């Protein structure tokens, strides 16, 4: 994989790549959106804690498929308020742990999720 960020466009706002180019792909794993809910059905109030749970679930899904964070080529994330951006991005950046190249990433503000206590949802695409 390699980062595709043309020098003549604005650099990314955060820890992500504008594009990721991969060679031939043997395995492709696409996750469903993961919500900030623990195995015991508890949902933290804090958006950052919810984002950490989202990434923990994604990590488990990737591991089950024989992949890891360094195989992620795209992250799509959704938050219910602009105020949740910093907490989400801190959780994302910690989960990525300095991998290179960074995946492509999109973050969108949405009106809500299936239950009102959910503040963050994250899905990824990984390739190896």
From TrEMBL:
InterPro entries: RutC-like_sf (IPR035959), YjgF/YER057c/UK114 (IPR006175). Gene3D superfamilies: RutC-like. It comes from Tranquillimonas rosea. This is Enamine deaminase RidA, house cleaning of reactive enamine intermediates, YjgF/YER057c/UK114 family.
